[in-house]
Each structure stands twice: as structure tokens, then as C-alpha cells.
Design goal:
single chain; alpha/beta; Rossmann fold; 3 domains; five-stranded parallel sheet
């Protein structure tokens, strides 16, 4: 698609703008179908973004997209249309706003709830520097469940600045929006707006405008012009309603399923499906078992559990910290909570994991999905830090299954486990044998008389280690291969029993603070040589997951070279 000039948006007739929206929607669908990405959220915000570019003067004015998965139209309108075919590809443009990519991306986003805080910071800097531009935060109703939103709103009057908050209300986050604020917004969309609901926003120092059809330019453009005029007197909240997936019936009818789509059909099994199956089966026999999620019911495989045990299933919306404390309190009262969450979003719960769960030694099981490099979503979604930030927390057991069969076995073992437990796993994997496991114990997968032992953690690394072993054997080399399925506690009994001089570790995680560090600390001062392979001290960008894992540290050829050098030393 050719780059659309700013003047075209500014000077187009109403008919031309609507045609432009059709072309943009078609380009988004075509590109996402090829590259993968966030589909329904972007289809629903085409008219809203075009209207923002018509009324405001970007990049002089600044717009922050909460989460950022609805920014594709913005990218197409800001000089990146000719690069749009590279979306989410290594070296191409990101699927999220990225400051280093364009002056039009004033603030990088990727997690929910940050846009209003960021907009306030930008606006306050503007005031202090005595500059003159407008600041807009585009925030979905799903993000209005997140506590950070209210922390920002609470300080709006204190900061004494001006921002426009566009509330993009489509009734969805990834899953349908839930909670008390969802009820308030539904009331406001229902027709007559209750005065107490308007006062809720006015108490924060916002002038409320709404409710407008965010997919109708004839209605939306005058509303935005009015909001811009009102900004001269103070902050404004413009409430618009959009249709997620608009323009494509299959996406409109299944907005959660088409929130994010893959560029290819995979026949690999998903860990999320195994989680849903195992939890539902376990819950039939154990009335203590409850499931908790933060707006990710379907993505995490919990839909069967929610349908079968609705009284024991809790979707708290985009509130990861709250979900952790809720799970802790449920455990404190004798329940057996399983909190399913993406690795990248678990980071938001760090204090609650330390203080509420592990500090009280409560039997909460964290089911940590999308662990390791996830690929095309980039820096904000790579799950490469959890081994590091979880491994130093007292009382926590940290498990890393080698395949889906072992994951099922870990879930079954967790039922009678009486302490905090985190099980981290990738999205997709292979089925495997379900064998009883003992918490904290490694598994020897291949044994030789070689003076080298290789510890691999997780499915990606076990698969890589097996491939390396085959090549090594072809060269007349060998090593003992250990499934290091617990990063904490380490299997110190096995580690102490091994006599090999050379130690190699592989992990789908950053090296700092990970499994390799822990094993190296165990063997320090005893003459062993430890070589650890994991990811570099860097934020890993978007791209194909396998390629990125090699580029950032899990390079099979380099690992094999290390093994050759150890064999040569003898």
C-alpha cells in the first residue's frame, strides 16, 4: 500500500475519508492474514484513528495507544504503509508502538493500563517546557479494569495538566470485559446517561463527552472537534463505542478468537488445552480447586473449566496484581487456586507473588503460559525473564516441563503440593508420556561415560539438546543429558553425585539469574567448568521465534563447538 500523505487526510471529503477507511481496513486484513497479528482490535478502530489524524496534528500532537495492539491504522497513516508488509517480521515494523521506529510513536506500549499515566507525563513535560501541543490517550474499556488507570486518574487534578482520554468501548479486552466498571459503561451506552456515572469521571477532573459511534465518521469527527475545543479549559474524556472486528463478519462474530491470529496453521498441540483438560478433571474430584485468570479465559485454555465450574472460576479482568492476591486469599482459606497467566503479564504481579503468596507460603499454583521467546509480538511479550525473577523468591518451587505429558504430570502432582508453585511452559509443544514425578527432582534422559553433562530446561532446550546429541554422536562425541525440570529447588542430590568435569546448561530465558547461574553457584570452587547458554542481556525484538532464539543465545552450532572444545581438553 502506498503511503498516505497527511494532507490527504486533512483535505479529503467525507466520501473520500470513508473510502480511505475501507482501503485501510482491507490492507490490515490482507497483511495480518499473511504476517499474523492483532486483527479484530485493529479492524474496529480504523475510523477512530482516521478521525484522530484528521482533527489533530501528529506528530506535533502526541497520541498514546493503551496496550498498542490497535495501532495498525496509525502506522499506515504515518509514513509506514510501504513497510506494512514487514509487520512483525524480523527487521520489519513492530506490531506495537515503538519510539525508535517513528516520531509518530511518542511512547512505547504493550501492556494494558499505561496510556493515561504516560499521557499525563508527556503533558506535564509539555507544560514545564512551555510547549504547545495536545496529548491524547486512546484506552479500551478492558483497560479500564486495570488499577493503574485509576492511579493515573487519581493524580490528574494534582498534576494540573490537560489531556484527552478517548475511551474506546467495544465490550472486549481479549475476552469479553467483566466487572463493575463494565456495568457502568454499559449503563452509559444504554441511552440516558445516569448523572452519577458522569460524576464518577468529573470527580477525577474530566469533562465527559459521550456516547458516540466510533465507527461513524459523520458522528465522530464533530465529537473530536468539540473535545479538542474543550481541551483549552481542561481534561476531557470522550466516550466512543466501536465494533471489534468491524468489516469482516467472522471477526465481528468471534472477536476473542480473532484478537490475535497466527500467520500459519500449526498442528502442534497447545499447553493451554492440556491445562483446561487437567484442571477440569482434577476439579471433579477435588472441590477445593478454583481457576483464576486476568481477562485471558480462552487464550489460556480455561473455557471448559469456566463452563463446567462457574462458581469456582474467576475472571477478574486486566488486573494481574489483584488476581495474585485473590488467589493467595483463596489459598489462605483452604482452597486450591490455579492462576493462569502469560509470562509477560506475570511480571506485573511480582510484588504480590513475593509478599502475598510466597511470603505466606500459600499453595497457589501459577500456570505461566507463553514462557520463553514468543516471537512476533516483540519486546513487550517475550517471556524470557520469569526464571530469573521467580527463582530467588523463598518458598517458591519453579517447574519447567519438557513436554505436554510432563506438564500434565506436574499439574497432577500440584494437587497435593502444599506450597507456592510456578509451572512455566511455551504456547505449543509435543505430547509425551505422563509419568509420576517427584517435586525438585531432575531426570536423566541419556547417560554416557563422557566427562560432559548437559542440563536442559524446558521443551525448546530439550529438543535442541537432543538435536545436538545426535550430531555429537555422529562425530564420535557424547554427553550425559539431564532434564533440569526444576529451576528451584535444584536437584542438589543429583548435582552432587555427578563426577563430570564439564557442565553445560541450556535455558529458554535470559542468562542473568537463570538456571545456569544457579547451577554455576552450586559448583563454584570445586574445579568444574560451567558453560551456560541462554539469552543475552537485551530486550529481544519481534521476529520468528526459532530464528530469534538462535540469534540471541541458543545457537546449536556454538553449543556444539563448546562441546567439541571440552572433548578436546579431555
Amino acid at each position: 500500500m502506498r503511503n498516505i500523505l497527511r494532507a490527504e487526510v486533512k483535505n479529503a471529503t467525507a466520501t473520500q475519508l470513508k473510502k480511505m477507511c475501507d482501503e485501510l481496513r482491507e490492507e490490515i486484513f490482507r497483511t495480518v492474514s499473511s504476517c499474523g497479528g492483532h486483527l479484530s482490535s485493529n479492524l474496529g478502530t480504523v475510523e477512530l484513528t482516521v478521525a484522530l489524524h484528521r482533527v489533530f496534528d501528529f506528530p506535533r500532537d502526541k497520541v498514546v495507544f493503551d496496550v498498542g495492539h490497535q495501532c495498525y491504522t496509525h502506522k499506515l497513516l504515518s509514513g509506514r504503509a510501504e513497510l506494512f508488509h514487514t509487520l512483525r517480521k524480523e527487521g520489519g515494523i513492530s506490531g506495537f508502538p515503538k519510539r525508535e521506529e517513528s516520531a509518530y510513536d511518542c511512547y512505547g506500549t504493550g501492556h494494558a493500563g499505561t496510556a493515561i499515566s504516560a499521557a499525563l507525563g508527556i503533558a506535564k513535560a509539555r507544560d514545564l517546557k512551555r510547549e504547545d501541543f495536545e496529548v491524547i490517550a486512546v484506552v479500551g474499556d478492558g483497560s479500564f479494569n486495570n488499577g493503574l488507570i485509576y492511579e493515573a486518574l487519581n493524580s490528574l487534578n494534582i498534576l494540573n495538566t490537560r489531556v484527552l482520554i478517548v475511551l474506546n468501548d467495544n465490550g472486549m479486552s481479549i475476552s469479553p470485559t467483566v466487572g463493575g466498571m463494565h456495568g457502568v459503561l454499559d449503563e452509559m451506552k444504554g441511552g440516558a446517561i445516569p448523572s452519577e456515572d458522569v460524576k464518577l469521571f468529573e470527580r477525577f477532573g474530566l469533562k465527559y463527552l459521550g456516547v458516540y459511534n466510533g465507527n461513524d465518521l459523520d458522528e465522530l469527527l464533530p465529537a473530536l472537534c468539540r473535545a479538542k475545543e474543550m481541551l483549552k479549559e481542561g481534561s476531557v474524556l470522550l466516550h466512543v463505542v466501536t465494533k471489534k472486528g468491524l468489516g469482516y463478519a467472522f471477526s465481528e462474530n468471534a472477536p476473542a478468537e480473532t484478537h490475535g491470529i497466527s500467520p500459519r496453521i500449526s498442528r502442534k498441540a497447545e499447553y493451554a488445552q492440556a491445562l483446561g483438560e487437567e484442571l477440569a478433571h482434577m476439579a471433579e474430584e477435588d472441590g477445593r480447586i478454583v481457576a483464576v485468570t486476568a481477562a485471558m479465559t480462552d487464550s489460556l485454555g480455561l473455557r471448559p473449566f469456566f463452563e463446567k465450574f462457574p462458581a469456582r472460576a474467576f475472571d477478574v479482568g486486566i488486573c494481574e496484581e489483584h488476581a495474585s492476591v485473590l488467589a493467595a486469599a483463596l489459598a489462605a482459606e483452604g482452597m486450591k487456586p490455579y492462576y493462569a497467566v502469560y509470562s509477560t503479564f506475570l511480571q506485573r504481579s511480582f510484588d504480590e507473588i513475593v509478599h502475598d503468596v510466597c511470603g505466606q507460603n500459600l499453595p497457589v499454583t501459577f500456570c505461566v503460559d507463553r514462557a520463553g521467546i514468543t516471537g512476533e509480538d516483540g519486546e513487550t511479550h517475550q517471556g524470557v525473564f520469569d526464571l530469573s525473577f521467580l527463582s530467588f523468591i523463598p518458598n517458591l518451587t519453579l517447574a519447567i516441563p519438557k513436554d505436554i505429558g510432563e506438564f500434565r504430570a506436574m499439574l497432577r502432582a500440584s494437587r497435593t503440593f502444599e506450597g507456592p508453585l510456578a509451572i512455566r511452559y511455551p504456547r505449543q509443544g509435543t505430547e509425551g508420556e505422563i509419568k509420576p514425578i517427584e517435586m525438585g527432582k531432575f531426570e536423566i534422559l541419556h547417560s554416557t561415560l563422557s566427562d560432559i553433562v548437559l542440563f536442559a530446561a524446558g521443551e525448546r532446550c530439550i529438543r535442541l539438546a537432543k538435536d545436538i546429541l545426535k550430531e555429537a554422536q555422529r562425530e564420535g562425541l557424547g554427553f550425559t543429558l539431564v532434564n533440569a525440570r526444576f529451576a528451584k529447588p535444584l536437584d542438589t542430590e543429583l548435582l552432587a553425585s555427578l563426577k563430570q568435569k564439564y557442565i553445560v546448561t541450556l535455558e529458554d530465558n535470559v542468562l542473568i539469574g537463570g538456571l545456569g547461574d544457579a547451577i554455576a553457584r552450586f559448583y563454584r570452587n570445586d574445579g568444574r567448568v560451567v558453560a551456560s547458554f541462554g539469552y543475552a542481556d537485551a530486550f529481544i525484538p519481534h521476529g520468528e521465534a526459532g530464528s530469534l532464539s538462535v540469534k540471541y543465545g541458543l545457537d546449536g552450532e556454538k553449543i556444539l563447538c563448546t562441546l567439541r572444545s571440552f572433548h578436546a581438553r579431555g
